[in-house]
Write a structure and sequence with these properties.
The chain is α/β, with parallel strands linked by helices. Helices cover about 20% and strands about 25% of the residues. The chain is built from eight helices and 14 strands. Bound molecules: zinc ion (ZN) (2 copies).
């Protein structure tokens, strides 16, 4: 089994030249090709294009996971559906529909979008909308060793982080947006790799988001091996994010960049 994780966007809702809107892709390859998965987490504006640029064809997507319904995390749903509606993708054989997973509110979001765009974004039985009853919960896959758990975090209503446990035993976690809370610590327990939001620099704390020192505290308390800071607002540029983080965390920490990839 081989898992590759690529950060598609290390930024936020604020457009900058350096950072795209948040989100990443996880590709897991097994010996049996039919079990391969390609998972987009947070379909932010432009993420379909960035998937292709990073070598992940949109037609290979098997799952889309949404952390919460802020527009900077969901803005590409319409372009993605419309792209997959293109006749060239109808010919691509797929035994299972593309699964769109999200917390409570997902059905309402999709219904609203279809109310505006109608059949242009309706993929029929080629897509399955899977709304969880609660923000947290487990997502099921055909491979029982491959487990994804959603854990509620403190941000907007029903926000969650996603925790991946690969068949190799390696653990990868993506925080989505979160304030300092027990949820993100629980989700990140013993993670080999944690992509953690760090929206604002030290001394510029905003409710619902983390600062570098708080990110360090999460990583330390949860015994994380490698920490990647992401979801960086322009206020973070030119600021030292690493030092305040290191005051609380002695593991490996880096500032995320678009296109950064890791193999687990
Ligand atoms: Zn956000
Ligand atoms: Zn948000």
């Amino acid at each position: 089994m081989k898992a590759r994780i690529t950060l598609l966007g290390s930024g936020t809702a604020v457009p900058t030249l350096k950072r795209n809107s948040p989100g990443l892709v996880v590709k897991v390859e097994f010996g049996d090709l039919s079990q391969n998965v390609q998972i987009l987490i947070d379909p932010s504006a432009g993420s379909s294009q960035r998937l292709v640029r990073q070598g992940y064809p949109v037609e290979d997507l098997t799952h889309v996971l949404i952390t919460h319904f802020h527009p900077d995390h969901t803005g590409d749903l319409v372009p993605l559906f419309f792209a997959l509606k293109n006749p060239r993708f109808e010919k691509v054989g797929r035994s299972a529909p593309l699964q769109i997973h999200g917390p409570p509110g997902l059905n309402q979001l999709i219904k609203g979008l279809r109310g505006v765009y109608g059949h242009w974004i309706d993929l029929g039985d080629r897509v399955a909308i899977i709304e969880r009853q609660a923000p947290g919960g487990e997502l099921y896959f055909s491979n029982p060793l491959f487990k994804i758990t959603a854990v509620q975090v403190e941000h907007s209503e029903n926000s969650c982080a996603y925790r991946f446990q690969f068949p190799s035993g390696k653990i990868f976690v993506y925080s989505g947006d979160t304030d300092y809370c027990q949820g993100i610590i629980d989700a990140s327990q013993n993670a080999d790799l944690l992509f953690l939001e760090c929206a604002f620099p030290e001394g510029e704390k905003k409710s619902g988001h983390l600062t570098p020192s708080e990110a360090g505290k999460v990583a330390n308390t949860a015994n994380v091996s490698k920490l990647v800071l992401t979801h960086l607002y322009p206020e973070c540029e030119g600021k030292d994010l690493i030092s305040p983080c290191r005051e609380h965390y002695s593991g490996s920490v880096i500032v995320g960049e678009d296109g950064l990839s890791f193999d687990l």
